[in-house]
């Protein structure tokens, strides 16, 4: 049986989390959610995810700070996608500069484009896996 890609959706809006969870579950993903940056960071540190979709504006810890902390931790190797809204494009640019793979405007979100990008990021084989396979093949 083929393994499912693992997706973490971090957004303080419950309705948004539920819509994304249902959409990506229907597309064959294993989906978990978090209601704020603190919970999202904890889940990223203690579980393996292929991709995290992160809202910028959240209570307790905003998306930029959560991503900054996640990407500086060796235990986190999920690709990050940021969701913007409320005219926070400057913050989206800042997010891209710290390692976010893509950003989408929540107000004009095209789910087909988001799905395409999530699939592209999830399908990437980590370099550590490639090295391990090559090492094993040489034996």
From TrEMBL:
Q: What is the lineage of its organism?
A: Bacteria, Pseudomonadati, Pseudomonadota, Gammaproteobacteria, Thiotrichales
**Classification via CDD domains:** REC
Highest taxon, organism lineage: Bacteria
Q: Which organism is it from?
A: Candidatus Thiomargarita nelsonii
Q: Does the keyword Phosphoprotein apply?
A: yes
Keywords of this entry:
Phosphoprotein
| Boundaries of every Response regulatory domain copy | 6-122
Q: Which residues carry this modification: 4-aspartylphosphate?
A: 55
Q: Which PANTHER family match?
A: RESPONSE REGULATORY DOMAIN-CONTAINING PROTEIN (PTHR44591:SF3), STRESS RESPONSE REGULATOR PROTEIN 1 (PTHR44591)
Q: Which InterPro entries match?
A: Bact_response_regulator (IPR050595), CheY-like_superfamily (IPR011006), Sig_transdc_resp-reg_receiver (IPR001789)
- GO process terms (BP): phosphorelay signal transduction system
Protein name, as recorded: Two-component response regulator
